[in-house]
Design goal:
mainly beta
Amino acid sequence: MAKGPGLYSDIGKKARDLLYKDYQSDHKFTITTYTSTGVALTSTGIKKGEFFLADVSAQLKNKNITTDVKVDTNSNLFTTITVDEPAPGLKTIFSFIVPDQRSGKVELQYQHEYAGISTSIGLTANPFVNFSGVVGNNALALGTDLSFDTATGNFTKCNAGFSFMNADLIASLTLNDKGDTLSASYYHTVSPLTSTAVGAELSHSFSSNENMLTIGTQHALDPLTTVKARVNNYGRASALIQHEWRPKSLFTISGEVDTRAIEKSAKIGLALALKP
C-alpha cells in the first residue's frame, strides 16, 4: 500500500528539518551500546551554559512492541510503549512520566492510502483530547490539528495545513495559533546525487504584524559529509558540518553569528553521537 498523505506532523517537515534540524549552540554527547539480549542503552549529556543535563535511556524491541524508558537528572522516569501495526496501518502509543500522575496518555495513529489520523487522550479525570487528520494522496494533503480541554470546554489548539508534493518540490501552507500565525514553506531538491536542496519558511503573525523569513540550503561534500547553512531576516546566520566517521556515528559542529552585531561572539555547538 502507498504511504499516502502521512500524518499532520508531516506537513512542512522536510523544510523544517532542512532549516532547523541539527543546529544547536550547546555541547552534546550521545553514546549507544547494546546488551547481549538486544536492549539498546543510550546515555546523553548536554552542557547548556553553566548547566549540565544528562539522561539514560533503554529501548527494548520484542516483535512489534517497542518499549522506551528514560531517566533524567531530575529523577523523572519517561516511559513509552509502542505497538506497531496490531492491525494494518495502525499504531498504538502509551506514554507516562513518573512522578507526574497527570502525564499518562494513549495515542492511536492510523495511516491509509488516502488518509492519516492521529488521536490521543490523557489518562486523567478531565483530560486533554487531541485529534489531527489529513486527507489526500502522495501529491496533495489537507489536514487539521485540534486540542480540546475537557476541564474548561475550550479548544487549546486549532491548526490547519495544506501541502503539495512532487518528485523534487514540497510546498506547504499552515495556519497556527488559533488563526494568528500563517506560515508558508517550500523544499526543493536541486541534485539528488549530492543531496543538494534549498528551502525557505515565511511566517506572519497577525497580532504583532511581524514577519519571520528563514532560508537555507544543504549539500553533501561526499557520501559521509554534509554541510548546511541558513539565514533569517533578523540577520542571524548559521552553518554546520556533519560527518559520519563510522556507520551511524556522527560528529556535528555548528555555529551562529548575528550579522547585525559582529562584535558579539559567535555561538558554537558541538554534537557527538556514537553507535556501535
